[in-house]
Amino acid sequence: MKTRKIITGKLIRNNFLFLLVVLFSFTLQNSKAQCIANTWTGSVSTAWGNAANWSCSHVPLATDSVIIPNGATNWPVISDSGRVTNSLTIQSSAVLSINANNSSSLTVNGTFVLNGTISVGNTLTLCGQIIINSSFSATNLVLSGTTMQYLPTSSINHLIINNPAGVALNGTVNVTSSGSIILDTGKIYLGNYNLSPLSITGASSSKYFVTNGTGMLIQNVNYSTVLFPVGSASSYTPAIIYNSSGVPFSIRVNDSISNSYAAAPPYNFVTGSSITTNAVNKTWHIISTSSSANITLQWNAYDTLPGFNKSACYFSRFINGYGWFVTTTASTASGSNPYTLTSAISSFSNGQMGIGSGGALPVSLINFSGKKINNIIELNWQTASEINNDHFMIERSTDGNNFELVNTVKGSGTSNMVHDYSLMDDVSSFIKQKIYKEIFYRLNQVDMDGTINRGEIISVNIADNSTGIADIYPNPFNSSFTVSANSERNEIIKIEVKDLAGRLVSSQTENINSLNKTINVNMNDEKEGMYFVTVYSENSTVTKKIICNRQ
Questions:
Q1: Which residue has the higher pLDDT, 323 or 176?
Q2: What is the pLDDT of residues 400-448, one digit of tens each?
Q3: Are residues 437 and 519 in the same domain?
Q4: What residues are paired with 119 via a beta bridge?
Q5: Where is average pLDDT lowest: 242-251, 310-319, 331-340, 535-544?
Q6: Which of 438, 463, 488 is where one domain is finished?
Q7: What mean pLDDT do residues 89-110 have?
Q8: Segments forming the whole domain that contains residue 413
Q9: CA–CA distance, 434 with 389 (Å, rounded to integer)
Q10: Cβ(206)–Cβ(184) under 8 Å?
Q11: pLDDT band at 350, cuts 50/70/90?
Q12: Would 518 be classed as within a structural domain?
């Protein structure tokens, strides 16, 4: 009986000790859970992993809201992996360092607020809202949220996207010259900010750069084939470029195609009406100083407009002041959804590229001009390409508003060659009346199906003793062009040449004292592209468009 009592007493004491241990452990964990704001004190060292440096007497947990305050004795340093917080706030003069060794890392599950300084030598993972009010840089930044994250101005070596909801740029993000972007999950929305990584890995139809503003994806292309993984929020439409000049290319794609765009950078602002048939409903804006490159564009079946024929499609390039130029012959697109088309392109001055078929994106008027020869107006125009062009209608007006038909001129159907046209108009009756100083002409193009496309309007001075611009040739030109002018008296004219951005590239004055004066304008130092030539005389100002093409 005594033996049984002794054993029973030991069991009671052991159970009591066990309950004390459990109660102590529960109390400790509960105290950690109750210590919501865990503030760094740095009272004993710089070690993040030392519990004595924290106000809650424990190293931060995934549930802790952590504050690095101003005025700490020592600033915290993370030298190992697996460190974690809920939210993290770094106050204005506080400093946090993540060492540059192979394992140092910190994960912030909640909101990250940076008012002070953080030195990220290795990896920082942000899963929540990002608020940056001071300079921010990181060696490796992982964005791993579950809702859209907005990345403010920062400098990053390696940016890893692991957010299915996506990441949107909310400031200028500089990916360093040796840096990269890794797309594990989700898209990057550029908005109005450019991004220029050295390399991109992991891109696919669900992981790419959404060009939803004026921002462009910029990459260097040098003796290699480079993928530009761009698209809209719902459509992946990348470009692939091969080039041997080693210059950067900037690319953005828009979810529409138009018959007119802004004449100055960033060029993507639509100023005309939408094209609604026979084309891919995308505009690829490709900007580069390169003189040539092989371009492959990709699109999906649902990106095409009614009437588009993938078995007879072609590249078109938009040039401000003229419209869409067909740059390749029609061919069959490759692939079976998505589809691709490849071509060698020789100019990227304005940048708009499109895919058309069956007469969409046709255009092609290079020049339309008129000159007075005695009582005759000689009209001349030139096209770079034509699609389903039955004929031209030339109309005349004395007020620039009310036009009447002068005559028609047969078109060239479908052609990718340059064609020159002319028409003579007898205006002797208008000259005799001596009440009109100028005559207006409108050039209209009529499709095979009878559709009339109203065109450019020019004016020709018919007053006596007027200066006339007989011609500007050749157009396109290589390194120089000639202005042919005539005047019935001695007169000084001024010739100015401006590029599409309005920059004055050439200016000269000449004395005109004959019926056929020729002036050479040297453009050898200027780039390929479109220019506006304006000739100022005492009685008139005439502006004509001309193209520099060094091929």
A1: 176
A2: 888 999 999 999 887 767 788 999 999 988 888 877 888 889 888 888 8
A3: no
A4: 97, 137
A5: 535-544
A6: 463
A7: 94
A8: 364-463
A9: 38
A10: no
A11: low
A12: yes
Instruction: Give 161-165 contacts, CB < 8 A, sequence gap 24+.
Output: 161/185, 161/186, 161/187, 161/188, 161/207, 162/186
Do residues 545 and 366 make contact, with C-beta atoms less than 8 angstroms apart? yes
Q: To the nearest whole number, what is the mean pLDDT of the chain?
A: 84
Would you call 169 exposed, middle or buried from its count of C-beta atoms within 10 A (0-12, 13-18, 19+)? Answer: buried
Gyration radius of the chain over CA positions: 35
Question: Would you state the structure tokens that stand for residue 323, as one six-digit string?
Answer: 């419209």
Rounded to whole angstroms, the Cα distance separating 465 from 512 reads: 12
424 within domain boundaries: yes
pLDDT of residue 271: 61
Q: Does 493 lie in the same domain as 404?
A: no
Query: Strand, coil or helix: what is 488?
Result: coil
Distance from C-alpha of 75 to C-alpha of 93, rounded to nearest angstrom = 10
The verdict on 447 and 469 lying in the same domain is no
Number of domains in the chain: 2
d(CA 254, CA 232): 7
Contact 517, 492 (CB under 8 A): no
In our burial notation (b when 16+ CB lie closer than 10 A, e otherwise), range 88-127 reads bbbbeebbbbbbeeeebbbbbbbbbbbbbbbebbbbbbbb
Mark which of 463, 488, 520 sits at the end of a domain.
463
User: What pLDDT was estimated at residue 270?
Assistant: 63
| Residue 170: DSSP 8-state | -
Q: What is the pLDDT of residues 21-58, one digit of tens each?
A: 444 444 444 444 457 799 999 999 999 999 999 999 99
The sign of the torsion formed by the CA atoms of 345, 350, 352, 357 equals negative
Contacts of 30 (CB under 8 A, 6+ apart): none
Report yes or no: 425 and 383 within 8 Å, Cβ to Cβ. Answer: no
What is the DSSP track for 315-384?
A: EEEEETTTEEEE-S--BPPEESSSEEEEEEE---SS-EEEEEETTSS---EEEEEEEEETTEEEEEEEES
Q: How many CB atoms lie within 10 A of CB 128?
A: 18
- For residues 469 and 444, state if they share a domain: no
What pLDDT is stored for residue 469 in this prediction? Answer: 62
Judged against a pLDDT cut of 50, whether residue 238 lies above it is answered with yes
3 state SS of 20: helix
Are 368 and 458 members of one domain?
yes
Whether residues 548 and 473 share a domain: the answer is yes
User: Quick check: is 105 in a domain?
Assistant: no
What average pLDDT does the segment 453-477 reach?
Answer: 72
Predicted local confidence at residue 6, as pLDDT: 44
Question: What CATH number does residue 453 fall under?
Answer: 2.60.40.10
Distance CA 151, CA 132 (A): 9
Residues 404 and 469 in one domain: no
Query: Has residue 434 been placed in a domain?
Result: yes
Q: Are residues 459 and 378 in the same domain?
A: yes
CATH of residue 551's domain is 2.60.40.1930
